[in-house]
Amino acid sequence: xxxxxxxxxxxxxxxxxxxxxxxxxxxxxxxxxxxxxxxxxxxxxxxxxxxxxxxxxxxxxxxxxxxxxxxxxxxxxxxxxxxxxxxxxxxxxxxxxxxxxxxxxxxxxxxxxxxxxxxxxxxxxxxxxxxxxxxxxxxxxxxxxxxxxxxxxxxxxxxxxxxxxxxxxxxxxxxxxxxxxxxxxxxxxxxxxxxxxxxxxxxxxxxxxxxxxxxxxxxxxxxxxxxxxxxxxxxxxxxxxxxxxxxxxxxxxxxxxxxxxxxxxxxxxxxxxxxxxxxxxxxxxxxxxxxxxxxxxxxxxxxxxxxxxxxxxxxxxxxxxxxxxxxxxxxxxxxxxxxxxxxxxx
Length: 346
Hints:
Distance between the termini: 55 Å
Shape: globular
Number of helices: 16
Helix content: 25-40%
């Protein structure tokens, strides 16, 4: 009735007023983490290209600290991203007093969460954690502890950036383009690399534990690395290294390069979104870089999916360097993040 009255001129609806735009200021900084320089570098690359990251390390090595600081490295949401994200939160009934949030989401469900809570569902087919993390970060700590069927449901959104939920009274497709950060212990006891602390089932316990992560799912993790225990010498030193704001400035610059590269390509904003055809068309790759990845293709049992993911990560590293061409050392660094876990099988 209100709409009819407005269209017929009986009673005009009041003009919409601009609402508040909320921004969450991170209270933690990357410089708080002592040591773990390689892990910090991987976190920067992941943030710059929206690449999925798997961290494997003993308890207390800093995996969770690294993940919780990733949000502070990401640029704020663009107006269109903020609106899209706010729409999902509105459907879920989680809007922050009606205001739009420009800070990228950081969702960290516990491993005991049900599959509908992660994927979405219920009687109204509402969004789950993977949709609430859209345009932001989904952090899954104790990754192998999640139920196998829950982990396997991540494969579609990790590849397509969306999730379809079918229920008797509703069929809904939600956007789910997030950056996955997964953290895992190397085995159930957590001390596989430390003989003095490891259990009696080493190394079988590690193979069984990480074996809960299927090959196709692991294949979708662009960067994988071991996070070793922090050396005592590092613990006794004062916090040092770059701050989150310094790293975020490089991430922001790399994202701007990607925005210009993909400006006229729908649904493509970062290197992680680039398809195989787009990689062939847009990526300038030196002969030495191509030779290096070809030399390692058979040794690492690289699948077609892995091949493209290595090129995407290499392109992000080149963007952080400000290089138009993907060089050999960019590919070498990208390859170094594929050496953990199962062999690459699609």
